[in-house]
Amino acid sequence: MKNSTYEVKKSDEYLTKAKEVIPGGIFGHYKYAIRDTGPKFFSRSEGAYFWDLDDNRYVDLMCGYGPSILGYNHPEVEEAFKLSSDKGNTVSLASPVMVDLATELVDMVDIADWALFGKNGGDATSLAVMIAREHTGKKKIIKIDDGYHGVAPWMQDKSRPGIISSDNEHVLKIKWNDSEALEELLDKHGNDIACFISSPYDHPVSRDNSLPDDGYWEKVTSLCKKHEVLTIVDDVRAGFRINLHGSNVAFGFSPDMICFGKAIANGHPLASLVGSNDIKKAAEKVYFTGTQFFSAPPMAASLATLKELRKADAPNKLIEYGKKLNDRLVKVAKEEGFNLIASGMPSMPYYRLEGVDFETHFKWIDECVRRGVYMLGYHNHFISLAHTDEDIDFVETTAKQAFKSL
Q1: DSSP string covering 113-181, please?
Q2: Which of 35, 131, 360, 361 makes the best surface tag, with the fewest CB within 10 Å?
Q3: Is residue 4 a part of any domain in this protein?
Q4: What is the pLDDT of residues 52-88, one digit of tens each?
Q5: Confidence tier at 158 by pLDDT (50, 70, 90)
Q6: Comparing C-alpha atoms, which of 301, 263, 308, 262 is closest to residue 97?
Q7: Is 324 helix (H, G, I), strand (E, B) or coil?
Q8: 47 φ/ψ sector (left φ>0, alpha ψ -120 to 50, else beta)
Q9: Rounded Cα gap, residues 216 and 3, in angstroms
Q10: Is there a single domain that holds both residue 172 and residue 225?
Q11: Rounded mean pLDDT of 199-220?
């Protein structure tokens, strides 16, 4: 396959058409990924690749922002989805596959005694907060500054369009890895704090990702238990990429609830909240639902996905592959006179060029994309089990050409 720069004329034409009928043409988080020289719409996908409207192929290091953990159009997953679809999708009763999937999650996830389902990660995080408030009788939430838990008004910054100050007046923020700040907040507001919510490690946008300090989570969970505050892990992004039993297991702690999404069904719309028996009664009381929450085929796809992840020992393979990719990219950057920082977990790395301005970093990303490696300049990336050693070779060659173009 050639490694020259791509033209994206059809994507650009379709974006112009889109702007006539969709505000901004492309909305939400996909809107922020748009760059002038890059693709805007895909035509097909398979394994570790997608093709744009101009039939340019890309090695996809975003995996749909995380869902494609096995690769696009995985045969076992798609077969399970199809077989379930043939029986019915959203029907007036729940499908027994819901019970089968809940049982699988309870068996697989370390702290899980029960499971509930939604469509997006934000469903799981919002439900978790509601359950925490019902269980504790308290209203305030502590979150990490810049931590992302979906687009519900309680989570968004008050400066964002459409958000009013009262939406998040009960949300308190602390810096990542700062257990002393957490202790101060708990001492001051402990009688009115329902929960502490955080990703298992810090993966903000446009900033190096950070793992927890030694003893951090042990201190956090100890403090929360002391003040009768529930601990919620948002494992929507990292779930099943670090440890199949929950990312918390890799970091040595036990939360009260864990939120899953993204990779849980290999791209089919599904999210789940799991928790301990201590809060099962509160979970039963809280009303949180949606018309499509009981769609059966995504649940069947999830069962197949979890089976494939178990069979492949997925987290270890993804981490091993990510380390290899990171080493090769850091090496080629050094050879071309640049210092590339690869931070976070290797199964979902964040890249940053050190010692240059952000536009230069984005320019390098753009040049990689123009040559067939799909990356983003502000977000962590994702590895799938469909990525191969040949893909690493291609990414390395592309990165080298992109560095030379700078």
Answers
A1: SEEEEESSHHHHHHHHHHHHHHHHS--EEEEETT----S-TTTS-TTSTT--GGGGTTEEEE-TT-HHH
A2: 360
A3: no
A4: 999 999 999 999 999 999 999 999 999 999 999 999 9
A5: confident
A6: 301
A7: helix
A8: left
A9: 45
A10: yes
A11: 98
pLDDT of 3 > 70? The answer is no
pLDDT > 50? residue 327: yes
How many other C-beta atoms are found inside a 10 Å radius of the C-beta of residue 43? 14
> Using one digit for the tens of pLDDT, what is the confidence trace for 360-396?
999 999 999 999 999 999 999 999 999 999 999 999 9
Do 349 and 230 fall within a single domain? no
Question: Which helix (H) or strand (E) covers residue 203, if one does?
Answer: none
CA 56 to chain centre: 26
8 Å CB contact between 400 and 84: no
Strand 140-144 to 171-174 pairing: parallel
Query: Could you give the number of structural domains in the chain?
Result: 2
Considering the domain boundaries, does residue 158 fall inside one?
yes
Of 198, 323, 315, give the one whose Cα is nearest residue 245. Answer: 315
Domain containing 98 equals 75-312
Q: How many CB atoms lie within 10 A of CB 59?
A: 23
Two structure tokens written together for 192: 């009115």
- Residue at a domain's end among 283, 312, 341: 312
Asked whether the predicted pLDDT for residue 404 surpasses 60, the reply is yes
Alpha-carbon gap, residue 155 to 143, rounded angstroms: 9
User: What is the longest distance spanned by two Cα atoms in the chain?
Assistant: 63
Quote the tokens at residue 196. Answer: 């502490």
Residue 66 CA to residue 260 CA, distance in Å, equals 12
The pair of structure tokens assigned to 283 is: 């979970």
Ordered DSSP codes for 250-308: HHT---SEEEE-GGGGTTSS-EEEEE-GGGHHHHHH-----GGGG-HHHHHHHHHHHHH
Beta strands in 168-241 (DSSP E): 171-174, 193-198, 230-234
Interior CA angle at 165 toward 161 and 168, to 5°? Answer: 100
Residues 241 and 115 in one domain: yes
The pLDDT tens digits for 331-343 are 999 999 999 999 9
- For the beta carbon of residue 334, count every other beta carbon within 10 angstroms: 12
- State the first-to-last Cα distance of the chain, in angstroms, to the nearest integer: 23
